[in-house]
Amino acid sequence: MSSISNTPESPTARPRVAVVYGSASDAQTMSKAGATLSRFGVAHEEAVLSAHRAPRTLADWVEGLRGRGIQVVIAGAGLAAALPGTVAALTTLPVIGVPISGGALDGMDSMLAIAQMPPGVAVATVGLNNATNAAVLAVQILALSDQELAGKLVTYKDDFERAAADGLARVAAASPAGASA
Amino acid sequence: MSSISNTPESPTARPRVAVVYGSASDAQTMSKAGATLSRFGVAHEEAVLSAHRAPRTLADWVEGLRGRGIQVVIAGAGLAAALPGTVAALTTLPVIGVPISGGALDGMDSMLAIAQMPPGVAVATVGLNNATNAAVLAVQILALSDQELAGKLVTYKDDFERAAADGLARVAAASPAGASA
Amino acid sequence: MSSISNTPESPTARPRVAVVYGSASDAQTMSKAGATLSRFGVAHEEAVLSAHRAPRTLADWVEGLRGRGIQVVIAGAGLAAALPGTVAALTTLPVIGVPISGGALDGMDSMLAIAQMPPGVAVATVGLNNATNAAVLAVQILALSDQELAGKLVTYKDDFERAAADGLARVAAASPAGASA
Amino acid sequence: MSSISNTPESPTARPRVAVVYGSASDAQTMSKAGATLSRFGVAHEEAVLSAHRAPRTLADWVEGLRGRGIQVVIAGAGLAAALPGTVAALTTLPVIGVPISGGALDGMDSMLAIAQMPPGVAVATVGLNNATNAAVLAVQILALSDQELAGKLVTYKDDFERAAADGLARVAAASPAGASA
Amino acid sequence: MSSISNTPESPTARPRVAVVYGSASDAQTMSKAGATLSRFGVAHEEAVLSAHRAPRTLADWVEGLRGRGIQVVIAGAGLAAALPGTVAALTTLPVIGVPISGGALDGMDSMLAIAQMPPGVAVATVGLNNATNAAVLAVQILALSDQELAGKLVTYKDDFERAAADGLARVAAASPAGASA
Amino acid sequence: MSSISNTPESPTARPRVAVVYGSASDAQTMSKAGATLSRFGVAHEEAVLSAHRAPRTLADWVEGLRGRGIQVVIAGAGLAAALPGTVAALTTLPVIGVPISGGALDGMDSMLAIAQMPPGVAVATVGLNNATNAAVLAVQILALSDQELAGKLVTYKDDFERAAADGLARVAAASPAGASA
Amino acid sequence: MSSISNTPESPTARPRVAVVYGSASDAQTMSKAGATLSRFGVAHEEAVLSAHRAPRTLADWVEGLRGRGIQVVIAGAGLAAALPGTVAALTTLPVIGVPISGGALDGMDSMLAIAQMPPGVAVATVGLNNATNAAVLAVQILALSDQELAGKLVTYKDDFERAAADGLARVAAASPAGASA
Amino acid sequence: MSSISNTPESPTARPRVAVVYGSASDAQTMSKAGATLSRFGVAHEEAVLSAHRAPRTLADWVEGLRGRGIQVVIAGAGLAAALPGTVAALTTLPVIGVPISGGALDGMDSMLAIAQMPPGVAVATVGLNNATNAAVLAVQILALSDQELAGKLVTYKDDFERAAADGLARVAAASPAGASA
Description:
The structure is a homooctamer of 181-residue chains. Chain A has 181 residues and is an alpha/beta fold. The first copy, chain A, folds into two domains: 2-145, Rossmann fold, CATH 3.40.50.1970; 147-181. Chain A is 45% helix and 14% strand. Chain A has helices spanning 27-39, 55-65, 83-90, 108-115, 131-143, 147-174; strands at residues 17-21, 44-48, 72-78, 95-100, 124-125. Chain A has a five-stranded parallel sheet with strand order 2-1-3-4-5, with helices on both faces. In chain A, strand 3 (72-78), helix 3 and strand 4 (95-100) form a beta-alpha-beta unit. Chains in contact: A-B, A-F, A-G, A-H, B-C, B-D, B-H, C-D, C-E, C-H, D-E, D-F, E-F, E-G, F-G, G-H. At the A-F interface, helix 1, strand 2 and helix 2 of A face helix 6 of F. Chains A, B, C, D, E, F, G, H: It comes from Pseudofrankia asymbiotica.
């Protein structure tokens, strides 16, 4: 479907992105972040850590991020989604928040809890459950100083245009008169 | 069910309406637009084009609309539903927007994204998933300079009244005393 | 500000658009529709009629629209904004609905009441209080069979592009280095 | 479950309440109104009439209500739920509105469309899908001049208290210590 | 403005409607109920009683309603608007609830708290702050067994139609061509 | 999963917490309160009582709470969730409210109905359906004067931290390079 | 207005309640908590600490609470209101959260961010801006082991009933016929 | 207030961030972005460009960004806020979106329109009107390859902690007993 092929990389590639989420039940939604990062050949680490249930373990984990070479954090959470903001409060690395819609309020609660930060402590919020876009954003950030990644992003976008144009051409070929009624 | 019969037309009838939507997953919802246009014998073309994923292919497609004889565009989209507004920004043809409720917020996000345009660039928004009404609106617009279509619209509305009156009559016949308790 | 000058027209020009709203308190919001129609030289008539308070007077008024040469109706209403839908139920002319935000719920109630019509009876809903866009939409519809109006619409859109480009040029000229910090 | 037994009545009892709704798909929800009216021995008539699709048939039907002896109207509708307000606009009988949650917005659209009427034309709105309460309200209104109904209402309420007290007694009997841990 | 003149009545007319609200700050909003009742010559009594702050005083007051000849209760409340439902729980008289928008959530909280009652205990909810409609509803209920009131209601509605028709006539007279542009 | 084992206790332990909810259909949601109280060895009693359907039985039940040794009340309700506020109005014991999402509005109606109390009569509201947290809150309150409970709470929280840290350790052990791509 | 007089106390009374909020702009709203605590003679301390801007200073402050004799924490916050949840994550004391409506979303964002905690870490949420009720709740909790406070609470509630009954009596005295029309 | 002093820089410093918004009326809100960037000594350029009114001028402007050395785009918009998404569709640079609350729906419409992007085209959304955080995020991104900026960010965060700790100390010094009642 895409002309970007997953880049082979050595198993010991150092992770540049950390993906963290508040509950094991968020794993499936958040797996799209990992899948997209892998598609771009960006190594990442993953952790399950609740800001409310394990605040001290989380603080220690954030403390160690920079030392392990992490440059961007992707944090997903539902309900009173404190995780992204708590991580952002504890680091100066860019933090991308993924609101997850598992609660009774369709995720609106988590989107507001993640986006509405006080001036000075920012979270880059993406759409509900849209872990793919969190990864794309992380790749865009890393690509600012990584020419190879920058090139892959261009290909990634061109693929979308090409697929759309191909679709139009197929429809035009199928309906000689170009119309249905 | 209706006294309008689909008008037979030559397979090469030139489309007057273009139906476009952002993702193949919107096809089923949007198919009601095509079905209703066909019922009125209005030829149309159809395309799948995302404003965000394929902006250049979309711009080219909009550029060609008037040359192909299109008079009205029906654009359906979900989430941050940019498609109708993007098309409206690029053409002076009337654009009808169909908000689609596939997202986690019940479609409220797409309805607002479609309706709340800045002064000067308008989109005619219909109800959530209501592609039928987008087609009815397109027919009403075309009927202003097409007497045959205007006549079909009158019949279309009369059918609703007749069906309702028939329903009342059936109920009255079934319950001689006109009441149940 | 714009290169479209209001077209002089004879005082007896026959109105092609009817603007109706439910309460005298909506007059100021709805006056933007009249102002925009005038800018395009489109004659219109105006009426204050509540669907809930004067249903019979409204029905008579709708009955007479086509005879008076009206082609498009713009209907504004707030709260349980029944006016646009009631007019749409009684005519086959295209009806454009303007939700008005005068109620305690920020106009969300009127937007939903106007947009969420049943299949078969459509209202073209614009943004909250956006009577300007209702008029633009009416002009776009009339322009399908009025070459002069079609030309004015192209100019209207070009003016927006030109104003934007001029703004960029002014900024670039003012900041020789193109930057501020 | 209740000590009110359905009152036998002659099949020709004249209906005092009319139940109307906009679409056959509302029949199941609205059937609770009929069931509750029957439980109180109040005869009613029922009709399916859309305010938007069959406005003239509806107006005729409303015209005839008083002549047929109807004293209260229960009107259910979903989406841009115009039916209750349209009926209220055409009669001075009390109209009770039942918002129905069949749309994509959980029924919030229909609740607002029914409740937010302009001053002077009122609809008595009950909870979402709560046709039972529409019937209870109708019975309470009729009971003001019907001693037998008034008595049944007292019994109806007492039954709730008795059932609650019986429940407490059963629990107390089952857990001798009155506690669980 | 209206052809209904306030009916003179003896100062000792027995109140048929009770108007109650939860806080003195609701008095201005609720005064529209009293004004409308007076316009129809319906005597009423008024009380300030909070369901949450004075539950026992409220229960005593409800207990005495029927004895004092009250037939309908109008109850207004904001926030977690328990008053209408609490009154409805304690009486079989019809209770009309007025949600008041004084809280931080624009009154949506009070509308839901009033409307969403459990099956069996009903409140007739009107629009936000719309105490006028609560009174109209009360009058419609009383008019079922009061011919004089029924006549006044017909006049009240006719006045709306007449005012609307007069408005149309004035506009037509003012613009000989019937149009503006 | 946890190092707190349920404390064995005599079957006649006197309940310190009362759990009450408005409808039998709330039993499953509310059972998490009982389960959590039991986990901490806190005896409780349980009742099904609707504020709207059985106001007098409820008032009697609240009257008896203090005499039976109850110190905290947990009240769950959906829709126009009056139960927690009604209990709070009738007692000076702390009342914890659990909004239940069984209605058509996702529970937002019950959350607002429970939380938005007037100044002076408070309900401690927890998240939607979160009866577990209502019990945790009750335990925290009781623990202020119960050293054993206070100790269990510390263990309860430590368990969360330990589980999180163990999870991190497992992941680190499994991915020697600490990364995936 | 009330028969509870503020209890004189020595200036060195040890605070039992801590009031904390995220921004100096919350001080006025939160001052109602202090005023109500003082009315009951409950000493408290106050701090301004943002969970997002000063997470480490906040953690230290929470660490010291129990040692200073604090038994209940009242935490107020607006926007992505993390403060109450962050405090609850770091202590086993009961935490009462006050959502503050200073943001663009009327405080709904802060209410959801405070209430929707994960199971196991609870916050007792009160209504928007309702710091008074946070204090009442704190007093109710402390009163479980403080007879004097318990007595004051009974008086506090009785005052509400008495004021309501007095109001009714005044109205009855003023309108000999008990009615107005 | 802060220990970061604005870095003097040559007037010809090349802008690394572009700030764009849809309407001149957004200038004041968006000026916080420029102010914050300046505080960190990051040069930026600014433009007013509507995605809907000037789509072609916007496309040209986006085309030129990379050539002018721009690394991050901050895009603010209200209503059907298409600008951030449109820019993101046309570039692979990271785009930060600022929803602006100028519309009738409190900005919720713009937040959803900006955040709810389709997978593959991401916008980093910050809180309503929070242009400050957009700038902080831009600085965090640039700091990944700019040691001086990274150092300034650490100071920026430390200032918040220091200010909070100083505030606590001042309060403690002012109230010797540490309490008020």
